[in-house]
Amino acid sequence: MARIESLKFKVLGNSRLFDFEQQEFMSELNTLRAAYLHLCTLTPPAPAAISERVKPAVAPRGRENLELEGVLGSNHQIAANLDRIARIAPSRLTVLLEGETGSGKELFARIIHLNSKRDKFVAVNCGALPSGVIESELFGHSKGAFTGATADRKGRFEEANNGTIFLDEVGELEPLAQVKLLRTLDVGEIQRVGSDKVTKVDVRVIAATNRNLEQMVSAGTFREDLFFRLNICQLLIPPLRERRDEIQLLLEYFIRKVCADNGIPVPVLDDELKRFLVETYHYPGNIRELRNLGMYIAHIYDGKPVRVGDLPQRYTRAHIDPAPTHPDDDHRVVRDRAERSHLSELLLRHGGDIKAVCAALDLSRARLYQLLKKHNLRPDEFRQR
After folding, report:
1. Which CATH number fits domain 243-382: 1.10.8.60, 3.40.50.2300, 3.40.50.12780, 3.10.150.10?
2. Where is the Sigma-54 factor interaction domain (predicted)?
3. Which of 50, 72, 160, 195 could cross-link to 165 by cystine, CB 3.0-4.6 Å?
């Protein structure tokens, strides 16, 4: 590993002096290096190797010592992520966060940064930047580089120098921006649009995506070498529907926080509402949706009882009557409730459009109609009139 690190700095640091074929070779070499470093984070060293190491000057931090900034609950996947964060946060390792929209990827990025010694945290939503602007936004531009460039401007990487940059929706990067990001990760250099000057930067990169980057690599829309450089340490953030044991805890936390911030009484959630939110509703918007629901309940029902019928329409339409509580039926009932709730939510979202729902679920029309019949759902009831 030491030889590989040395090779990176002594050879790749001067890669701009080489011709095109040599630079391609160096890029491939760094791809292999990134894959090797990724394996090092997954594979524990042999006991003999551990005993030969020099003892660290400072004891490693455990999960219990992390500054968590709002993470609650004890889901096993979240706990595993926090264990890994405790090990990698103080390092400069590039991190790739994967998870659905609204699942809390930026929160975990901030936790990684908060538990490092780096300077500022700069967040960039690559998916929100118009085409043609991403390169200038990330790497800056010089005066006169294009129409409207009336002055030199720093990019986000220069702003984040000695700190952390969070690239949300990294799968939306344009091809040229992907090339420049790869070089920045490889040799720690950026070049402003319209300038020949190369600037060194010391930036830790945390990237996030709700897309399957491996499939994008296979489709030719995302560079394979960039994928390996970003995927040195991967953290999968589970969707809220897979963390049902945390839903009530999180919702009550959001409600109490809003009430405390605004000086209003805390509403009372009835038992049927709790069961519905914990066991049935599918949460397509994940943590973000639950936080917004907490804000709605706190402001609209300050100090009052709240029932299922008091929720916005998208929740009440997904609600079904409590099912029998026979112990042998619990798992099947909960599964069926979640399935019906998810179908109802998709039908509502797509206005009863069967083709759109089939695409969202990757199902044939015949299979979808079987599920609709099973749950007594009629698409025409969800069509806007």
Report:
1. 1.10.8.60
2. 71-293
3. 160
